[in-house]
Amino acid sequence: MKLMFVSDIHGSLPAIEKALAIFAQSGAQWLILVGDLLNHGPRNALPEGYDPAAVAQRLNGVADKIIAVRGNCDSEFDQLLLHFPITAPFAQILLPGQRLFVTHGHLFNPDNLPPLAPHDALIFGHTHLPVAEKRDGLYFFNPGSVSMPKGDFEASYGMLNDGVLTVHTLNNDGVIAQVGITPYLTVCKTDNAP
């Protein structure tokens, strides 16, 4: 399974157009939106090309391929513009031997974990800082922000491909961070096995 992760769009039309072009060419089956889709939020400056209605229209064009969670800047009013659900605080994606727990990051995050099993991955946004690491038997992944990156990072998005979570730069597809998440599987072979 190949997945693309986009977080913290904050209503930037140029950012989502670039991300959707990458999604269309990537071969990813699902576009996972990690919150803060349409509004810039009261503490943020307006991002380049701020046009929430146009962002909603572009996202609605791929609504059947989207899994989304609610960010702290998303509202019930935003849901009226979108043709896919955005009000859930988290989503869970099951992979063989592990779970991806997707949440925006303002409720659950590395400092306030939901109940997770060994080898599970916490996928979050909110900080606008890319992360791909394994710590204490868990995986932590933040695709950064496509519109308002922080910490001297470039605008970025994430991919899960062949058991590897990678944060890519939005404009030149460079790799910022990556971590392999394939859990250790024991294969037993008996004398009677073919």
UniProtKB/TrEMBL annotation:
Reported cofactor(s): a divalent metal cation
Annotated Calcineurin-like phosphoesterase domain residues: 1-160
Record-given protein name: Phosphoesterase
GO molecular function: hydrolase activity
Record family assignment: Belongs to the metallophosphoesterase superfamily. YfcE family.
Top-rank taxon: Bacteria
PANTHER family: VACUOLAR SORTING PROTEIN VPS29
Pfam families with a match to the protein in the record: Metallophos_2 (PF12850)
Keywords associated with the record: Hydrolase, Metal-binding
Enzyme Commission number, as recorded: 3.1.4.-
Taxonomic source organism: Cedecea colo
